[in-house]
Design brief:
By secondary structure, the protein is an alpha/beta fold. It has 19 helices and 10 strands. The protein has 4 domains: about 5-105, 2-Layer Sandwich (GMP Synthetase, Chain A, domain 3); about 135-290, P-loop containing nucleotide triphosphate hydrolases (Rossmann fold, 3-Layer(aba) Sandwich), CATH 3.40.50.300; about 295-365, Helicase, Ruva Protein, domain 3 (Orthogonal Bundle); about 375-465, Chromosomal Replication Initiator Protein Dnaa, Chain: A (Orthogonal Bundle), CATH 1.10.1750.10. Helix content is about 50%, strand content about 10%. Strands 1-2-3-5-4 form a 5-stranded mixed beta sheet. Strands 7-8-9-6-10 form a 5-stranded parallel beta sheet, sandwiched between helices.
Length: about 475
Amino acid sequence: MHTDYQTLWSKCLSVIKDIVPEAAFNTWFVPITPLSFEENKFTIQVPSQFFYEYLEEKYINVLKVTIHRVIGRGTMLNYRVMVDKTTGGTVDYPTENSSTVVKKIMPKDANKAPAPFTHVTPQDLDPQLNPKYSFDNYFEGSSNRLGRTAGEAVANNPGKTTFNPLFLFGTSGVGKTHLCHAIGTRIRELHPDKRVLYVSSHLFRVQFTDAIRKNTTNDFLNFYQSIDVLMLDDIQEMIGMDKTQNTFFHIFNHLHQLGKQLILTSDKAPVDLLGMEERLITRLKWGLTAELSRPDIELRKKILKNKADHDGIVIPDDVFDFLANNVTDNVRDIEGILVSLMAHSVINNREIDLPLAKRVISQAVRLEKKQISVQQIQEIVCNYFDMELSEIQTQSRKREVVQARQITMYLSKKYTDYSFSQIGKIVGKKDHATVLYACKMIKDQIEIDKSFRSAIEEIEVLLKN
């Protein structure tokens, strides 16, 4: 029986090096330390719980095959996992692999200086929060009420509500990042002892890649597993990044089991994160999933008024209403438009008025198309030809009534999404063929009759105003 466990492990490494890629070998096998080989049990020491879990998941077959080849079949593999001082004690437990036993032990150098990622107190940790994003200027509306209410509950009792994780999703610019910063800032105010961190998924991935390259993965994990409130923004950026996802999966498990608070954002709901590991998606749905949608008209007015008051911009009522009704996609557009208006006003030395607002908005966002109904078209056509609305609805064959009815049908097809049949039911209870014929007749007349074409154009102008 071999007794020189270090020589045995060196032979194992030589075999493993030919099996796995060099980067994987340096990251996951070089840090392993052989401890003993007694009673047919080969014991190795790994730096962390995460390290052990990763080996078990990804490389257990490589380890078993190699040990059986070098030492002999029937050899059992034992792990010893280094744990930090706060974990304490020695714990033995079986794993899914019945031949593997893991023992947690205290490292001899537990009192050494903190690793590069580690900070001793919450005050040492930069939470990466922007203080200008607070609950005071995060206004509530129907589009964000659930997320905001849950966010305040989490801020008051981080890790102690059912909203863990709190998963916020929505399109760009609807306030996900603002809400994250508001929650983090409130937690820092109410719970100064908590270690709070906001980080983008992009930065998380860059840090992880850098840790692998520098062989400081353990420092990376120790740091993130010490956080009390972790806010990860834009988790969809991890899609396709299997190693990053796997690392975050273990960090998530560690924090959640300890009752730490997790807040995550994405541009998609968890079920729509195609390319994300299923086990991670399952965990993202453990707490509350809240959608932040496009701000409604009342919320847009609140945001506009606050931004204008904060920047000292005087906006006429007609401009204010125009902005609120046309800048609808997200909060960033609203704020950007106000900045542009102020710049144009100052540089060109002119008051902010509706023409200026229309010009500035047209350069920044696509104006909302005015929604026109068949009823509105009927009313405008009747007013133009000075006739009662009820006349169009009759079976009258008078030339002026037939023409008004046909124009209404033509414009209804052009400016609404209604089908020929739907338009016919609304306009005089006519059938599909009648509406189709009317549209053809009006289109032909527009092409050959200049005065008639002008009349149609005048009616269209009335529709768009």
